[in-house]
Structures are given as structure tokens and as C-alpha cells.
# Entry
Amino acid sequence: MRTLGCLLALQVQGEAGAQGGVGGDVVGLIIRSGPVAKVILSVLLLFSVISWAIVLYKLWGFRRAERHTSSFLDVFRKSSKFSEVQAACRSVGESPLVGIFQAGYAELNAQLRHASASDTQGHQTLAPGGTAVRPRLKSLQAVDRALLRAAAVEMSKLERRVGFLATTASITPFIGLFGTVWGIMGAFQRIGQMASTNLAYVAPGIAEALIATAAGLFAAIPAVYFYNFFTQRVKQFGSDMDDFALEFLNISERNFT
# Structure
């Protein structure tokens, strides 16, 4: 009788293991999980899908911005007039430097037009050779402020949606942990109902519970990596914008003051 009982116990364990998917049937575990676990897994899947969509979108956008920035700097440093650079801005519009240049160029033009209008009202001065003196900038600080405002706008564009990756990285492990705790609570309740601690009854419930933790980590780990990656890229773009703004101010100071 004892031998028969052992055989029956081994058979029950084998059938439960095959049904519970302890050997790796993750899909089966998800299908057999309770409604709360399925809701939690659905939320984690939603976070993961949105995160990967943001990752792919930002990778494409940053690579395009890098190419356009390189092309824009080539045009900017080879052109002898700002008007030539302005004409080329449409073809490299994804570069954050374009917005900074256009803001500085607009402020520069506004001051020079105002100075020209003042000269035409009888205040025009002549150089020793009799030629008219070209208009001068009244405030280089105003141009600097325009560049700073444009840089802030471009930084906001670069950082857009990246914060969701940080949210995913911080919140999804806890959502998964909640699903695991909930599943283990259910497993202990089943143990109490069956008055047995047999592994055949405990293992499937615990395995279903741990799926939530795995799903939370699956959503969080890529989000952490790409959040740090994009943060570094945004800092690099910010450094490039600061350098370009200084270069623009130096050219404006040399030519219009």
C-alpha cells in the first residue's frame, strides 16, 4: 500500500508539472493565471510596448538629427552670409541647431532693420570716404537671450517622451512585485484549502506568481538602459548647441558691432 501511495503521488506530481508548465510553458502559465494577474500582465505589456515604440522613434529621430546637424554645420561654416544659411535650413530642419540659428538670425535682422530705419530718418552717418556706415547691433545681449530661449525649446523637443522611459523603469518592477505577492497569497490560500504542502499543489501557483516579476523586469531593464542612453545623447546635443550659440555670437560681434 505504501508503494502504491508513492506511485500515485509521483503520478499526481508529474501530471501537475505537465499541466502547470513548470518546465517552461510560460504561455500556459499566463493563460491559467487569475484575472488580477492577467490585468497586471496586460498593464506591464502596455508599458513595454509604449517604451519600445518610444525607443525606436527616438533612435530614428536622434540619428536623423545627427545627420542634419553635420550637414548644417558644413553649410554654416562654408557660407559667407547668414542669408545663405537661412535658405538651406529647410533641408536640414531636424537639427536642433537650425532652431537656434533662426532665432538668432531673426533677432539680428530685427535690430539691423531698426537701425537702418533710424538712419533713413536723417540720422545716417558717413564714413571718411563718404560711404554710408552699415547698421550696427544695439544689443548683443538680446541676441544671446534669443539664442538661450531657442536652446531651451530645442532641449524640450529632444527630451520629449524620454521621461516615460524613466517612469517605466521605476514603476514596472513594483507592479510585477505586486502581481507576485498577489499570486503567492493565492497559492497559500490553495494550500490552506487542500491542507497539503505537496509541491505538486504549491509549484504551479508560485510559478504563475513569479511570471509577474519576470514581466516587470522585462519592461524595466530596457527602459533603464535606453533612458540613460538618450539622456547622454541629449546632453551631447546640449553641448553642441552651446558651442554653436557661442560661435554665432562671435560672428555677430565681429561683423555687426
Summary: Residues 28-256 form one domain.
